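ok trying again, last paste got cut off:
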Amino acid sequence: MGRAALVLVAWACVSSGAVADGKGGALPDPSLLDGVLAKVVVEDDAAVDYGKLVGDKKLRDKLDRYLKQAATMPKDAPMAVWINVYNAAVIAQVLEHGVPESVRKVPGFFDQHTWMVAGREETLDGIEHGVLRTRFRDARIHV
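nice, full thing came through this time. structure:
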């Protein structure tokens, strides 16, 4: 499964309402991300219609709120939450770069730009390899 396909996995993982982890922290409210993905995922292509995001401030605000909530989520959040956060960060970072032709052509896209997640700075590679692959050891992660 490629990076773009993770968007569909994330969409399948979202449910409604913020969830307390039982340790004082709250998981990001998945309804925020679901509200964005429902409007911008092109299911037939397993792709994101970034033009809709660029033109809709309310959707971008939902995405920003989701990522702000992820900053303080618990480190032991479930795999689905980490996948959702990864995908939200990819989408936001694409928007920051003006929707490049390919994220692979953007220097540092995966290994330099950082996001505050679960109380620490993480790159996209850090989330994918340091958390998703290492912690969850699920063969479906970036196959």
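cool. Residues 73 and 118 are 5 Å apart (CA to CA). The beta strands are 41-42, 47-48, 115-117, 120-122.
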